[in-house]
Amino acid sequence: MDDIQDRLSENELASFFHDLADAAGRIAVTHFRSNIDFERKPDLSPVTIADRAIEQELRRLISKRFPEHGILGEETGSTPGDRYTWYLDPIDGTKSFISGMPLFGTLIALADERNGAVIAGMIDMPALAERWYGTPSGTTFNDAPARVSRAVNLEEAQIYTSSPDFFSPEDWARYDALSRKAMFRRFGGDCYQYGLLASGHCDLVVECSLKSFDFMALVPVIEGAGGVICDWEGLPLTRHSDGRVIAAANAALLQQALAILQQ
User: Fold this and answer.
1) Where does the chain bind Mg(2+) (predicted)?
2) Known binder of ligand: residue 91?
3) Which of the residues 5, 43, 94, 206 has the least number of beta carbons within 10 Å of its own beta carbon?
4) Which among 199, 114, 210 is positioned nearest to 163, based on CA atoms?
5) What is the pLDDT of residues 35-72, one digit of tens each?
6) Is 51 annotated as a binding residue?
7) Is 74 within any annotated ligand binding site?
8) Is the pTM of this model over 0.90?
9) Class of 4-145 in CATH
């Protein structure tokens, strides 16, 4: 097929991303704080009817618009396609969702598998009415430009991670050593913490155990806002990355953090 940028203007692609997030949000808020039941997947993570309904609707909309594209979603796996793949996490932060905490989001990304580039990504927080959309041209937060912070020293940095539960003992020791050198550390937020970084409200996010549908949308959001994101070896994130992710406001902070993580 022709290059997708030749078929869609930047505004048309952004509009489609917003349409997807709007559809996901309508389903999410309908079920949020409704005491819905959840099941345990084989990895013991929870899943709800909302997770499945959102992914089903996103797949329907994408397949209708781009029937030749592949889709990789958390709940229903991979549908092969041509050189383009959509990455979907219908509810990132399901534990927050089922416990009434509004810090859950929907992650959507479009990647060119020919060169590994993530063309666009979105973090949508439906319960908060907050949304980040990122491309190589820049990142917006609720349609206004988003920029990372200016912190360049680890001692002045605010560092986030979702939970100690996601770390192996060895990786936790590395994170613990790093985070105790920062100005302060906070826990929780799942994808929301990356949006906060893109808007300059925190400076570092370090996590483990992420899947490609957890982090692909984050790449253009962080990079479009002027930040950097990679794995713990300093390598670019791909669908084959090991799930250890670090995002930083700038390269100076990143190098300080990597030096500790790699000890």
Assistant:
1) 74, 89, 91-92, 214
2) yes
3) 43
4) 210
5) 877 677 666 576 789 999 999 999 999 999 999 999 99
6) no
7) yes
8) yes
9) alpha beta
The encoded tokens of residue 12 equal 């048309």
39 in a known ligand binding site: no
List every span in the chain annotated with CATH 3.30.540.10: 4-145
- Rounded Cα distance between 117 and 110, Å, is 9
3-state helix/strand/coil string of the chain? CCCHHHHCCHHHHHHHHHHHHHHHHHHHHHHCCCCCCEEECCCCCEEEHHHHHHHHHHHHHHHHHCCCCEEEECCCEEECCCCEEEEEEEEECHHHHHCCCCCCEEEEEEEECCCCEEEEEEEEECCCCEEEEEECCEEEECCEECCCCCCCCHHHCEEEECCHHHCCHHHHHHHHHHHCCCCEEEECCCCHHHHHHHCCCCCEEEECCCCHHHHCCHHHHHHHCCCEEEECCCCCCCCCCCCCEEEECCHHHHHHHHHHHCC
Is residue 43 a known part of a binding site? no
Per residue in 89-130, pLDDT (tens digit) is 999 999 999 999 999 999 999 999 999 999 999 999 999 999
